[in-house]
Automatic annotation (TrEMBL):
Protein's UniProt keywords contain Iron: yes
Organism for this UniProt entry: Magallana gigas (Pacific oyster)
Family: Belongs to the cytochrome P450 family.
Molecular function in Gene Ontology: heme binding; iron ion binding; monooxygenase activity; oxidoreductase activity, acting on paired donors, with incorporation or reduction of molecular oxygen
Protein name as annotated: Cytochrome P450 4F22
Length: 353
């Protein structure tokens, strides 16, 4: 949420946390998490998955509720003044959810701070994001303040889970809707895994999942997990013969960009992964597809996100096949990320059966 010099300094301090060498060991962590998810799904495989409802972690539920209330407040000008909003039921719940989310971030920071105090960092080969936040100093030897650190951890906790959860869910939805594409992904995943020594995907294998990568990109085009960003211009901007005065709120709509019929054709709503094969990608303007935004303020976690999506989807598709519940209508709502109005409901079948 910061801007100007403050943003520049944080971005500079944190960029090393997303170096490939730091991301590599995360493959194991994504895999462990994907296995837990698979075990949870396995309980429902080949049964009526809708008869049981999973409950979210309270952190995930709080973030979802915050986003929905943010949407409600945006649409309700009478809730704009704080002295009204925080007197309403939603405002009070919003405040309690924010306090809870902040508390989780503070607990994580305190725990790592204690660990760092009792640890010799010189033995650590790579410092992860939290190590960097807690130890980083700029050229003048100043570290981040307690509040700065909390704000960064909040951003990463939110950006790091809600976005990829949206992307993975919508991609699975499209794969369930397009069984032929799903089958091709499974064939590719089976082949790549069968060629590994350990029987598990490692960092170097992720680059071999070409077709899955096409499906991931196409899913992020069709559904645009982060549908747009906004900016306030500090300088006048001239677009053709229109000048936008400084101080204007400008919305950059990635969802519309990803559905521009001039670029994507009249069938832009259809899921066609081949749009992202090498030939087709080379023919297109590189700014036609911007799920992670573009420019200096683009997504710092995009390589992290892509590798997480590959590992999680590969683990799920290796074990299960997914099909649509055709009786359940899936509508979209933008609440920070692209969410389904009433969930996405898929049937899960174990592939061993
Ligand atoms: C599919 C997953 C993701 C998508 C689609 C996505 C998309 C985006 C977009 C569009 C922006 C630009 C926001 C703006 O300009 O206002 C952004 C910024 C950001 N993203 Fe992501 N993101 C994803 C995953 C992640 C992950 C996994 C992390 C962290 C581990 C992350 C961390 C960030 C951060 C910290 C920023 C702010 C960067 C800055 O302001 O310099 N994102 N993301």
């Amino acid at each position: 949420m910061s801007s100007g010099q403050k943003w520049k300094r944080s971005r500079h301090l944190l960029t090393p946390a997303f170096h490939f060498d730091i991301l590599k060991p995360y493959v194991k962590i994504y895999k462990t998490c994907a296995d837990i998810l698979s075990e949870n799904l396995n309980e429902h495989a080949d049964t009526d998955c809708q008869s049981k409802r999973e409950t979210n972690h309270p952190y995930v539920s709080a973030v979802q509720d915050i986003a929905m209330t943010w949407l409600l407040r945006n649409k309700s000008p009478w809730l704009y003044p704080d002295f009204i909003f925080y007197r309403t039921k939603q405002g009070q719940k919003f405040k309690a959810d924010c306090d809870y989310v902040h508390k989780i971030a503070e607990d994580i920071i305190d725990k790592r701070r204690r660990e760092l105090e009792s640890e010799d960092l010189s033995h650590k080969r790579y410092l992860d994001f939290l190590d960097i936040l807690l130890t980083a100093k700029d050229e003048s030897g100043n570290g981040l303040t307690k509040e700065d650190i909390r704000n960064e951890v909040d951003t990463f906790l939110f950006e790091g889970h809600d976005t990829t959860a949206s992307a993975i869910s919508w991609i699975l939805y499209s794969l369930a809707e397009n069984p032929e594409c799903q089958r091709k992904c499974q064939e590719e995943i089976d082949k790549v895994i069968s060629e590994t020594k350990s029987g598990r995907l490692e960092w170097k294998d992720l680059g071999k999942l070409d077709y899955l990568t096409e499906c991931i990109k196409e899913g992020m085009r069709v559904h645009s997990p982060v549908p747009g960003v906004s900016r306030v211009n500090t300088q006048p901007i001239k677009v053709d013969d229109v000048t936008i005065p400084p101080g204007t709120i400008i919305l950059i709509n990635f969802y519309a960009l990803h559905h521009n019929p001039t670029v994507w054709g009249q069938n832009h709503m259809e899921f066609k992964p081949e749009r992202f094969n090498r030939d087709n990608s080379e023919k297109r303007d590189s700014f036609a597809f911007c799920p992670f935004s573009a420019g200096p303020r683009n997504c710092i976690g995009q390589n992290f996100a892509m590798s997480e999506e590959k590992v999680v989807l590969a683990s799920l598709l290796r074990r299960f096949s997914f099909s649509l519940d055709k009786d359940h209508k899936v509508d979209k709502v933008i609440a920070a990320v692209m969410r389904p109005v009433d969930g996405i409901k898929l049937y899960i079948r174990s592939r061993d059966n």
